[in-house]
Amino acid sequence: MSSLDVPSLVRSGAVCTTWRAAYAAFRTLRLPSPAQGPCMLYAADNGSDGGAMYMYCPSTNAKFRVPFFHSEERGGPGFVFSASGAWVFTTDEAGDPFLLNPLTGARALLPPVRTLPGLDAFFDAQGDSTGPGGLPVRAKDWAFRRVAIGSDDDRTPLVMVVHMLNEMLAFARPGDARWTPLSGVGPLVGQHRRCFSDVVYHRSRGLFYALRRDGSVYNVDLHGHGGGRRLPEVRKIMREVSVVSSDVKYLAVAPRDVNGGGGGLLQVWRIWHHTHGPLEHRHTFQDSVRRKLVFQDRLDCSEDDADTGNINEIGDHDADTDDETPSTTSTCLGTAAGKRKKKKLGIATSEVVVFRVDEGRQKLVKLRGIGREHALFVGNNSGVCLPTKDFPAFEPNCAYLTADSNAYGATLPIDMGVWSFEKRRMRGHGAAAWPEELRRRQPRAEYWPGSLPAPVWITPSL
Predict the structure, then answer these.
(1) Which of 66, 76, 119, 220 lies in disulfide reach of 208, CB 3.0 to 4.6 Å?
(2) Per-residue pLDDT tens over the stretch 262-291
(3) Residue 404: count of CB within 10 angstroms of its CB
């Protein structure tokens, strides 16, 4: 059993009573298993399966149903976010969050959504409200933006979230009665307490890191907090690099051998465009620099010596021609099918740019990619870089993108694809990383029902 990947290990326990006993003993003894590659967790979009969740493992091409998200009492899942480790953060029908191990069904309840600052008066007990512009919103889809999960003692989860209203920070442990806001702690005052784009937990440093939409970064030390112990400590480690923008910014921990990352932080900027808009209205990173939306004196582009002048000229000629199977990247590539539905408001990724955070010089160092031995996974998950030599189903120096439903909305076209840092464009060549039913989906069906979460990358663990 120690030679099996984690999904196969779980399935082995269903073979017979003898295998079930062996599987139980394996878990009890906490025996080591091989490094686990990313799997995709996604919802069925047909009524016959009741919004069931599935897990697909690209390394083995195996797929199995995950039964723990749905119940008659709670209905289907709301917001689903994958953080490092065994846990997935999700919500029930009323928007109240909990942690779930999708392989074992283990749960850990978190404080109710209405204990977040400002949300007690915004949502009713059923999680319903009238949002900005008079549109109805549900707490289960709208209240949470990003999640990071750490621990004090490698056993008790410690959860930090970016939440609405105003994309602020709060944290809690399972069993806490309320979420604890971080607004007003240290430098998190005034405008600096809101507009956070991402959070991540740096396991080797034991710190949380939070990224604002202006590129500034804060570290948060929560160890020892709780039960009357010391207050959280927040420190600003990176200054503002841009104006606050609607482009999505992620954090990821850099592998030690990636472009001098040394286990530090990467910023990943996902620049998007409206699919119904004209090509000339799409902007690139270089456009932002020219328009002084990005502060050039706080960038170091010396490590990126490639020509970036036309990297966003995306059209039919950009699509890879060696794919026999339609890819879910079609809505990102501006294909003819995509153009036929341009009247439908949607958002697609135009460009992905990666930086190394240089705390000493207070600059972002623009990189040509993440190296020829790693792949990057971002979306509704904690950003992670993994070595491709261990997982040949994935291509090196590429970013595997899933829909960021927080930014784009669950009813818009699926913004999924593989960004090649070498070619600097979306490509369909890596479509085999997705389950067959997503690969074969026709453009007219590429709209997720509003009641289903977007697909996410997870790294299964027992």
Answers:
(1) 220
(2) 679 999 999 988 777 777 677 888 888 888
(3) 24
d(CA 341, CA 343): 5
Q: Is the pLDDT of residue 136 over 90?
A: no
What separation in angstroms does the CA of 228 have from each of 225, 231, 235? 7, 9, 21
| Per-residue pLDDT reduced to its tens digit, 189-223 | 999 999 999 999 998 899 999 999 999 999 999 98
**C-alpha 315: how far from its chain's center?**
26
Residue with tokens 């299964």: 460
Summarised one tens digit per residue, pLDDT across range 92-119 is 888 999 999 888 888 999 999 999 998 9
Cα angle: 214, vertex 219, 222; to 5 degrees: 140
Question: Of 357, 355, 352, 364, which Cα lies nearest the Cα of 422?
Answer: 352
Q: What is the DSSP letter of 95?
A: S
- Listed in sequence order, the residues at least 6 apart from 86 whose beta carbon sits closer than 8 Å to its beta carbon are 101, 103, 104, 106, 460, 461, 462
Nearest C-alpha neighbor of 240 from the set 199, 192, 310: 192
Residue 367 structure tokens: 């990189």
Structural domain boundaries in the chain: 1-34, 77-240, 246-454
pLDDT digits (tens, 9 = 90+) for 339-383: 334 344 567 788 999 999 999 999 999 999 998 899 999 998 999
* Token pair listed for 390: 């261990």
C-alpha dihedral, 291 to 295 to 296 to 298, nearest 10°: -170
The length of the chain is 462
Which of the four pLDDT bands, split at 50, 70 and 90, describes residue 176?
very high
- Reading the block at residue 147, the tokens are 């999640």
Which of the 8 DSSP states describes residue 68?
G
> Which CATH class, in words, describes the domain spanning 77-240?
mainly beta
Give the pairing of strands 299-300 and 363-366: parallel
